[in-house]
Amino acid sequence: MGPVGLQLLSGACLLFSLGMFGTGLSDLKQMFATQSVENIQFLPFLTTDVNNLSWLSYGFLKGDWTLILVNAVGVTLQTLYILVYFYFSSEKRSVLLKTMGLLAVLLLGYGYFNLLVPDVSVRLTRLGLFCSLFTITMYLSPLADLAKIVRSRSTQCLSFPLTITTFLASASWTLYGILLQDVYIATGCFFPSGCCAHVLAAGRVRTAVRGGRGLPGPLGSAPATLSPPPRSR
Q1: pLDDT at 83
Q2: Any stretches that span the bilayer, and where are they (predicted)?
Q3: The pLDDT of residue 62
Q4: What is the pLDDT of residues 121-169, one digit of tens each?
Q5: Is residue 231 in a domain?
Q6: Residue at 166 is within a domain
Q7: Which end of the chain, N or C, is surrounded by fewer C-beta atoms within 10 Å?
Q8: Given this model, what pLDDT does residue 212 score?
Q9: Residue bearing the bigger pLDDT, 196 or 173
Q10: What is the model's pLDDT at position 78?
């Protein structure tokens, strides 16, 4: 694939990632409308912010402007979600402690990668490995949704827009990593795309079975009740 193909794939990564990040705007709208954070979880915002910051650092170290642009937008939006959540939360102490814990982890990570690993190539390798493993760990949550779908025979716990955009973004980033021969980008995004594909497949199967046999439970008639997959790159 030539330079034009690479630019198109880079554009796809940007487009689908922005769509994935944008799904959090519904939570933002809900918080402003209800003046509360009821039924909205804080941890996905926090972990996604860490993930975006990690990949942003990797992008700067690698000199990849696609990574830099996408994750800079991600960091901005996730930080906005965190600030709004903190403003409307009735448990500000808990939110503040978790946020301070995040800052402490980031400072430790910065000190390790910049002070204890002076060699740039080694730093790039270790940071890439961390980003890849952290992303894979984050995307274990769709598997919980998959188990919930199977047990309840209902897809009401599934956020389809978020799952679809996550699948498209992860698949695009996997191809992007393969094209650049970057094992960390490719590996870190292949697992999330596979998880989302299985969740979407399970949702379609359950919906089809529901239509033919009349299984109990409304399908797609209620908002997600489980935490959705983290909004990240």
Answers
A1: 94
A2: 65-88, 95-115, 127-146, 158-178, 184-203
A3: 94
A4: 999 999 999 999 888 887 765 555 555 555 655 555 456 667 777 778 8
A5: no
A6: yes
A7: N
A8: 37
A9: 173
A10: 92
DSSP 45-113: HHHHHHHHHHHHHHHHHHT-HHHHHHHHHHHHHHHHHHHHHHHH-S-HHHHHHHHHHHHHHHHHHHHII
CA distances from 233 to 6, 53, 162, 172 (A): 18, 10, 12, 10
Residue 118, token pair as written in the block: 């002076």
Per DSSP, the residues of the chain read --HHHHHHHHHHHHHHHHHHHHTTHHHHHHHHHHTS-TT--SHHHHHHHHHHHHHHHHHHHHT-HHHHHHHHHHHHHHHHHHHHHHHH-S-HHHHHHHHHHHHHHHHHHHHIIIII---HHHHHHHHHHHHHHHHHHHTTHHHHHHHHHHHHT--TT--HHHHHHHHHHHHHHHHHHHHHT-HHHHHHHHHHHHHHHHHHHHHHHHHHHHHHH--SS-SSSS---SPPPP---
CA distance 210 to 98: 41
CA distances from 205 to 82, 208, 210 (A): 35, 5, 8
Domain count, the chain: 1
Place of tokens 């918080």: 31
**Considering the domain boundaries, does residue 219 fall inside one?**
no
Q: Does the residue 161 lie in any domain?
A: yes
Which of 4 and 73 is assigned the larger pLDDT? 73
- pLDDT of 203-229, one tens digit each? 444 443 344 333 222 233 333 333 444
